[in-house]
Every structure is written in C-alpha cells, then in structure tokens.
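Hey,

The postdoc asked me to send both predictions to you directly instead of through the lab channel. I've kept everything plain text so nothing gets mangled by the mail client. Protein one:
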Amino acid sequence: MSDPVLPARPATIPAGPSAPRPSSPGTPSAPRGAARDPAATATAFEAAFLTEMLKQSGLTKAFGALAGGGGETGFSDLLTREIATEIARTRPLGIGAAVRQRLDGGGS
C-alpha cells in the first residue's frame, strides 16, 4: 500500500544548463536586470567582493561597537554592503571591468 502523502515515484529534475538551481540562504541575489546587463553584473560582483573585503578588515565590528543593541550585526552588515556598493560604483578597483570584459566575450 502506498503512502497517500508521498508520491509513488520521485519527481524528475531537469538536467543541463537551463535547469533551475536552488539558491542557498545568505547568497546575495543579483540586482534586477543584471542578468541581461553585463555592466550591472560586473558592478554587483565588485560590490560583493568589496563587501567581503570590508567585513574581513573589521569594519563591521567597528560599526557594532558604536551602535550597541541586538540588531547591530544586521545593520552593520547592511551598511557595509552599501559602502561597498558605493565604492564599486564611484571608485572601482578594476575587478568589475575585468568581469565585464569577460562577459562581453573579450579576454581569455
């Protein structure tokens, strides 16, 4: 006798590059339109890199020490991400340019 809650056979998962990929929690999503716009994708990649670099530098801890309270970590992470996005937009390091060149089909 089969279980009425579970299906009789497992659902098939499509394979190949067009198969949907589950996103894991904590994985930042690309900005709207970034999939079609190499410039936006490149800037988002540079901002993500800068966010991690700033977190490792201790910037997040400095914000936490000033704010206090239970939500300090979440807000300091948001502030760090915004600072990184602004740096990537106004004073890029060149990482985004390299990513954009690669997305446009240039480089090897």
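Protein two:
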Amino acid sequence: MSIAVDTAKPPTLLTALRLPTVARLWPDFCARADKEAWPAARLLAALAELELAEREQRRIQRHLVEARLPAGKTNAALNGWENALRPSMRPALMSSGLPKRYTPILRPVLADTRSAS
C-alpha cells in the first residue's frame, strides 16, 4: 500500500504548527534520510531535537533581552553574587523576615560565605 504525499504541503503545515526549524530544515534532512536509509523514527527524532534546541536558544535570547542587563553583564558575571555579600549583612539577611520560601535557598549560600570569611 502506497500513500501519495504532496511535497508542497509540509512547509505550510509546519508553519501552521509553529515549527519554524523543522519547516526550514526538512528538505535537507529528508534527502539525507533517503540517501542514508534512515528509519522514519530517526528522521523525526532528529528534526524534533533540532526544533527543541533552537526553541531553547530563542527562549534564552528572549529572556536576556527582557532582562535588560547593563552592557557587559552576562549570566556568568552574575553567578558569583553570593560572594559579594558582606559578612556584616549575612545575619541581617537571615533575620530580616524574608519569606520562608527563600530561607532554604539562602541558608547554604550564607553558610558557605561565612566559612570563607
């Protein structure tokens, strides 16, 4: 049993499904899959993985733009923020009436910085 496939439809369908990466890459990947005799599952998995990876990159870029970080500031530059806590501020932070949900996050950070000072 053979199923006729209209190769003009996938770009429209993929755009309607909001799969821009797959819409852009499917012709090349289908040609490679035909040439290398990939099973359908491998082709589908490869395209889905690429779509997810590009979505993650777009999400990160969108969040960085929305964060409006000052010029030169990156996530890497912000990772060491706990080292910037002055020793005199540490006890005040823990007793400042922070919501209880922050205590488990801050306690190990403050303990680490206390032992370093």
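Summary for protein two, as requested: The first helix runs from residue 9 to 16.

Thanks,
C.
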